[in-house]
Amino acid sequence: MPPAAPALAATVALLRERLGARRPRTAVLLGSGWGSFAPRLSDAVELPYADLPAFPRLGVVGHAGRLIAGRLGAVELIVLAGREHAYEHGRADAMAGAIATLAALGVLLLVQTNAAGSLDAAMPPGAVMLVRDHLNLVQQSPLVGTQGDTRFIDMTAAYDPALCNQALAAARGAGLALHEGVYAWVLGPQFETPAEIRMLALLGARAVGMSTVPETILARHAGLRVLAFSLITNMAAGLQQQALSHAHTLAAAEATGAGAVDLLATVLQALEP
Fold first, then answer.
1. Catalytic residue of the set 27, 85, 118, 253
2. Catalytic choice (210, 235, 237, 253)
3. What pLDDT does 245 receive?
4. Is 211 assigned a catalytic role?
5. CB neighbours of 246 closer than 8 A, spacing ≥ 6?
6. Among the options 46, 76, 88, 180, which is catalytic?
7. In which residue ranges of the chain is pLDDT below 50?
8. What's the CATH code of the domain at 177?
9. Can 49 be counted among the known catalytic residues?
10. Helix pair angle (213-221, 96-104), 10° resolution
11. What pLDDT is stored for residue 239 in this prediction?
12. Annotation marks residue 234 as catalytic
């Protein structure tokens, strides 16, 4: 469902007051393992999601629940440190108010990050994958309940091809490895079975996770361009001996996130939205 108008208006008014003359055109949504990016911003203003009526209240370890506005070099950014997931309540529209707020503030580009499992031995833990497309295996939409023809969004180029190419060129120019592939969204919170992973591989997925796709749909509906990166924290079920757990995902993300954050910072400063 779309966010309540009074909550959205109050959130936008508060942020405009706190941001002052800043006019960021790019927002970054941080998933598990990417939290060390936020301290890289200079001249930062921070607000907890709890102070923003249109934003969710987060309940997952590894998601700070703070909005940070600042600069990365010459680039002005809004950073959303954390997301609410559909597996927490069964709804795909948890981030609708946050994305609507970004659009109302004039943001044009949403850069998403997440932690994911790999279906490809050539893309081991610690690797970063540029999301070229996605599989909405859950077949839920955050646009259910919206009205009018604008809800019928063309998702042919959900992840902006021109920006994807810029990201690959920036990584290559800096000597940083950046894989690319299809991300499969599963609801969770349980991890996948080996049989499900074999199915996803047959469907063309290279990484799997429990987020990102709803926010991409919301962003495209709001007119934002989208770029997304997956930090690989584990091989998917049936492709490794170690049992999967949220604690293992967080630990792996923490151990390998610094390289991913370096890559993200490099790409953000090279983009020409």
1. 85
2. 210
3. 63
4. yes
5. 61, 189
6. 88
7. none
8. 3.40.50.1580
9. no
10. 40
11. 85
12. yes
Q: What is the pLDDT of residues 81-119, one digit of tens each?
A: 999 999 999 999 999 999 999 999 999 999 999 999 999
DSSP labels for 75-144? EEEEEEE----GGGTS-S-TTHHHHHHHHHTT--EEEEEEEEEES-TTS-TT-EEEEEEEEETT---TTT
Q: Please state the domain count of the chain.
A: 1
Q: Catalytic: which of 98, 115, 171, 237? A: 115
- Can you list the positions of beta strands (E) in 120-251? 128-136, 179-185, 207-209, 225-235
- pLDDT at residue 241, as a whole number: 67
Assess whether 246 carries a catalytic annotation: yes
Q: Which of 211, 228, 235, 237 is catalytic?
A: 211
**Structure-token match 């499900």, residue found:** 196
Looking at residue 258, its pLDDT comes to: 82
Asked about 88 being catalytic, the answer comes back as: yes
- State residue 238's pLDDT score: 81
- To the query of whether residue 129 is one of the catalytic residues in this protein, the response is no
- Choosing from 27, 38, 63, 134, the catalytic residue is 63
Structure tokens at 197: 């992973």
pLDDT at residue number 5: 86
Domain carrying residue 175 = 5-270
Q: What is the pLDDT of residue 64?
A: 75
